UniProtKB/TrEMBL annotation:
<comment type="function">
    <text>Transfers an acetyl group from acetyl-CoA to L-homoserine, forming acetyl-L-homoserine.</text>
</comment>
<dbReference type="InterPro" id="IPR029058">
    <property type="entry name" value="AB_hydrolase_fold"/>
</dbReference>
<dbReference type="InterPro" id="IPR008220">
    <property type="entry name" value="HAT_MetX-like"/>
</dbReference>
<comment type="subunit">
    <text>Homodimer.</text>
</comment>
<feature type="active site" description="Nucleophile">
    <location>
        <position position="134"/>
    </location>
</feature>
<feature type="active site">
    <location>
        <position position="318"/>
    </location>
</feature>
<protein>
    <recommendedName>
        <fullName>Homoserine O-acetyltransferase</fullName>
        <ecNumber>2.3.1.31</ecNumber>
    </recommendedName>
</protein>
<feature type="active site">
    <location>
        <position position="289"/>
    </location>
</feature>
<feature type="domain" description="AB hydrolase-1">
    <location>
        <begin position="40"/>
        <end position="324"/>
    </location>
</feature>
<keyword id="KW-0963">Cytoplasm</keyword>
<comment type="pathway">
    <text>Amino-acid biosynthesis; L-methionine biosynthesis via de novo pathway; O-acetyl-L-homoserine from L-homoserine: step 1/1.</text>
</comment>
<keyword id="KW-0012">Acyltransferase</keyword>
<dbReference type="InterPro" id="IPR000073">
    <property type="entry name" value="AB_hydrolase_1"/>
</dbReference>
<keyword id="KW-0486">Methionine biosynthesis</keyword>
<dbReference type="GO" id="GO:0005737">
    <property type="term" value="C:cytoplasm"/>
</dbReference>
<comment type="similarity">
    <text>Belongs to the AB hydrolase superfamily. MetX family.</text>
</comment>
<dbReference type="GO" id="GO:0004414">
    <property type="term" value="F:homoserine O-acetyltransferase activity"/>
</dbReference>
Amino acid sequence: MTESFSYNQPFPLECGTVLPSLKIAYCTYGALNAEKNNAIWVCHALTANADVADWWPGMIGAGCAIDPAEHFIICANILGSAYGSTGPLDVNPITKQAYLHSFPTITIRDMVRAHDLLRKELGIEKIKLLVGGSMGGYQAMEWAVMNPDLAERLFLLATSPAESAWGIAIHTAQRLAIEADVSWNANTPEAGSKGLKAARAIGMLTYRNYELMVAQQTDEDNEKIEDFKASSYINYQGDKLTKRFNAYSYWYLTKAMDSHNIARGRKQSIEGVLQTIKTPTLLIGISSDILCPVQEQKFIAAHLPNCRLEIIDSSYGHDGFLVEAEKISVKLREWLTW
């Protein structure tokens, strides 16, 4: 069951704006032990929510590599999202109107600082394993830099220490699709919904890859001139996201990803900041990932002082970190010594 934490004090953002208050939706599984040393925190990616047991089957649950019978598992919805944490559809307590287009610029660091408030509220002094895939990995790395002694171990998947030019270009194309929707400038919760569908379509091309799309979505009928299987698939995925998310959150969260750079404001290179992360780290790359490709994982591994890199052979592209639970679990179990 999703719970909510309210922080009824001003929350300053990295951009200089101050949110009058903050709420964070979160889910927990298992129980915190008396020593308070069995907490596992999972940071989620772009359009996921706090219910990690639902969106990461095979990784979280009874008998899984991360088991609530042994650990206190927490996943919190990120700031700016559409699943219960403070976001664009919420009412600004000062203006009494929904934020919508007036929602402020947020960064990965803002998300981590918000989660750290929840951590303290839950009485967690030490995180046994800090986990993050894709955008979740951005948060986990930032947290490890901001609070070097918090996590005993890091588990990162398909991620990067700074958003690449490739990623920024993709996100820009997605926001252009949202902005091209004639409804985007309307001050309504539904604004940009058709643009969001197009943005999701662009995203799907980067979450998967040529080989998988051809293998799964090729039509056997050589006489077709329309109504192609691949078109139906992309339309279906776009409609599916539009029903559960909103264009405002997508727009703001892709902007937050673009600003991700662990070296920003730290007077060191990315390599230098990575070298300050002494936490033992398991890093998983996906062989067919074109969004956060293996070369980015190799770059991280080359500069983290205590890192084990494993490449999972998968045809599922970037989504492999969500799909290949069995293969990933084997690597995680091998690395962990509880």
